[in-house]
């Protein structure tokens, strides 16, 4: 596949993933599907906006750049047909790095939250983190330590797991585009100027 076409495919995949990550993070503000009276009782990781910023908004910019690479005008500078396309592919490497960092932020944040468990209402009437180092993942009986909001443990676990998976996929896709961008920088794009110096047609 030509480097521009590959980038467009990757960009088209990143857009829906960013939307899903954004929505998953928004749902975390409603533990168990309910509105709580005091927002300070939400888990700290929710306020770090891993899905909204890292895998969401920050991922939109690389995705749009990747989508536009295939249609980028490659006949551009100093009389060299491939110069414009190669520069665009080089630029995509920078955006791929930005996307990788954003996805990595969401990935790490989600992993930390899953390991820590949610903040919830305990039997003594206080809000705290009752779980220790992921021990609740293998022992669902411990979930009863949370008295509210209802279904808070599976709610947080499911949504942060979704963010973890999305972040991981986005990191892989951005890494693929970084490699694709390097190839495009060195070889050009077969759609317009041939590969590795070949003189194709637009």
Kindly describe this structure.
There is one protein chain. The chain is mainly alpha-helical and 202 residues long. The chain has one domain (3-187). The protein has helices spanning 3-27, 50-69, 83-116, 152-187, and strands at 120-121, 127-128. Strands 1-2 form a two-stranded antiparallel sheet. Helix 2 packs antiparallel against helix 3. The model is unreliable at 73-80 and 191-202 (pLDDT under 50).
Q: What number of structural domains do the residues give?
A: 1
Largest sheet: 2 strands, antiparallel
Shape, per Cα inertia axes: elongated
Widest sheet: strand order?
Answer: 1-2
Give the total of beta strands: 2
- List the total number of helices: 4
N→C terminal distance: 16 Å
Subcellular location: Membrane
Main location: membrane
Protein name: Transmembrane 4 L6 family member 4
Pfam family, one: L6_membrane
Itemize the secondary structure elements and their pairings.
Layout: H1 3-27, H2 50-69, H3 83-116, E1 120-121, E2 127-128, H4 152-187
Antiparallel strand pairs: 1-2
Helix pairs in contact: 1-2, 1-4, 2-3, 2-4, 3-4
Keywords:
Transmembrane 4 L6 family member 4; disordered C terminus; 57% helix; mainly alpha; 202 residues; transmembrane; 2 strands; membrane; transmembrane helix
Give a concise summary.
By secondary structure, the protein is an all-alpha fold. The protein has one domain.
């Amino acid at each position: 596949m030509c480097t521009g076409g590959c980038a467009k495919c990757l960009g088209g995949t990143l857009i829906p993933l960013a939307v899903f990550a954004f929505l998953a993070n928004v749902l975390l503000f409603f533990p168990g599907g309910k509105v709580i009276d005091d927002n300070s009782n939400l888990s700290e990781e929710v306020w770090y906006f891993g899905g909204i910023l890292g895998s969401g908004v920050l991922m939109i910019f690389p995705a749009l750049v990747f989508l536009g690479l295939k249609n980028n005008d490659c006949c551009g500078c100093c009389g060299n047909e491939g110069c414009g396309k190669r520069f665009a592919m080089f630029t995509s490497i920078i955006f791929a790095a930005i996307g990788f960092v954003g996805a990595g932020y969401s990935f790490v944040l989600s992993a930390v939250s899953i390991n820590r468990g949610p903040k919830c209402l305990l039997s003594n009437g206080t809000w705290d983190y009752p779980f220790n180092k992921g021990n609740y993942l293998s022992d669902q009986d411990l979930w009863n330590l949370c008295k509210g909001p209802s279904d808070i443990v599976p709610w947080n676990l499911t949504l942060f797991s979704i963010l973890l998976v999305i972040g991981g996929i986005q990191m892989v896709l951005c890494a693929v585009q970084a490699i694709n961008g390097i190839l495009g920088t060195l070889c050009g794009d077969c759609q317009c100027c041939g590969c590795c110096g070949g003189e194709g047609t637009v």
